User: Fold these one by one.
Assistant:
Number 1:
Amino acid sequence: MYDMNNWKHVFKLDPDKDISDDDLEKICESGTDAVIVGGTDQVTLENVLDLLSRIRRYTVPCVLEISNMESITPGFDFYFIPSVLNSRDRKWISGLHHEAIKEYGDVMNWDEIIMEGYCILNQEAKAFQYTAAELPEKEDVIAYARMAEKMFHFPIFYMEYSGTYGDPELVQAVKNVLKDTLLVYGGGIQSAKQAKEMSRYADIIVVGNAIYEDIQGALQTVQAVKQEQ
Ligand SMILES: CC(C)=CCC/C(C)=C/CC/C(C)=C/CC/C(C)=C/CC/C(C)=C/CC/C(C)=C/CC/C(C)=C/COP(=O)(O)OP(=O)(O)O
Ligand SMILES: O=P(O)(O)OC[C@@H](O)CO
Ligand SMILES: [Mg+2]
């Protein structure tokens, strides 16, 4: 399953959080379409490599969502690169990307690199504060989605509510304006019911914190989404 267009569900593992071998096996063998390694702070080369080597015991596709330069390493199937469209600071939209491409441009395999237009919608999320994001109105979110698809031709538009469950009506409204760009939803999914609800509108749902807070609930989100197909 290396074609993202067929993905419905992914788990996101935070390199800064501990996970037992037993739980990691459950996640990787759950039937999820991919496992993303990513977080906002304390993401180091050491904790990324540790997760990568442990996930590689399984066949599930493995993605690094890049949050800093220090933890970039070869060995992942894909590299997701966020560009925070609602940041006030150019650094998080294209600044660090410019620096990285200056350094790695000659060795980058663009077939593995997937750009994500991020819109961070939870003011309490670490990533919101970290990237100096500003809270958008509904019309702003729709405009960011259109920019992601039509201006930048990003393959992904990511509605990021990290830590809290978002607004399904807004997710639906965004879905209605996207044609080619995949809509990814992440934030606060803890149950099969929530997973089903968001996957009615989003192409791909992301389950993160529930892995660490309620592994059984997290695992149930996979089948919930697959049954909808
Ligand atoms: C040698 C080799 C393999 C080369 C490969 C070439 C390659 C892939 C080069 C990369 C080129 C490139 C353009 C890199 C980009 C560099 C970069 C640092 C860009 C900035 C990315 C960015 C905007 C980061 C900000 C933070 C962010 C949006 C992170 C996303 C993850 C996220 C929101 C997690 C949720 O937060 P979490 O930590 O889970 O919160 P809680 O703990 O509260 O749950
Ligand atoms: O951790 P949660 O709230 O599930 O969010 C998932 C993901 O969107 C975080 O980047
Ligand atoms: Mg998290």
Note: Residues 49 and 228 are 34 Å apart (CA to CA).
Number 2:
Amino acid sequence: MLPGKDFTVRADGLLEFAPGIIHPEPDIRRLADALPVLYAQNIAPSDRPLYYMYRGVCWAKDQPVFTQHDIRYDITVILPGTIEGEYIKTVGHFHPLKPHSAETYPEYYEVLEGEALYLLQKNNRSGDVEEIIAVEAKKGDKVYIPPSYGHVTINPGSSILVMANLVESNFSSLYAPFKDKKGAAYYYLQGQGEKGEFVRNPNYQNSVALKLMAAPSLPQPTPAVKGKSLYEAFLADPEAFKFLK
Ligand SMILES: O=P(O)(O)OC[C@H]1O[C@](O)(CO)[C@@H](O)[C@@H]1O
């Protein structure tokens, strides 16, 4: 699934899909939904859209493969801009444990357009932060969210961010850990220069240094993605993605 080929991105961030692609109406997260995890407090709730989530996108002919393997392909569009100086980001969530396992569900992202900052955060038992990594990703980069890590995606750029993910299709995400702390352990705010700056979230009892990494330096969980988009790679070899389940 590629912008310009399978769908076009309108100036307002909504997508127009080619005929033959199954695409639900987008779920929209608005400013009012993000209030509990923002750096700034006392912001008035509003309907301002922040991001659009198209869940379960695929070519009609490919749907049986996704259904058979309980895998979903989503496309998320995060608008550029800031809220009181904080770059627009997803609300963020953790994933539950896989059944009969001590491991939580992972997830696999790919940047289709624009740039992204993925915050990957592991918490300790008391809900404070054990590790936090910021992954800088550009068009074509793939970012694996390993088990045990919650995740937040930030649009740090001045253009629309379009990203895709492959994820197990039946579980419900866990929002409380980030909401309870008013977000991840770091916020990304407008800085003095062109780039933003990370600011520690004081609602965590402990303080952990942020690790900054570039997406291409991260290990990939399967060689099946080499030279292919996540969509193509999954369709070519769905068994190679069974680690998602
Ligand atoms: O649930 P949040 O934190 O708003 O984040 C949305 C993201 O998570 C997903 O639901 C997949 O985990 C995507 O559809 C979307 O990119």
Note: The radius of gyration is 17 Å.
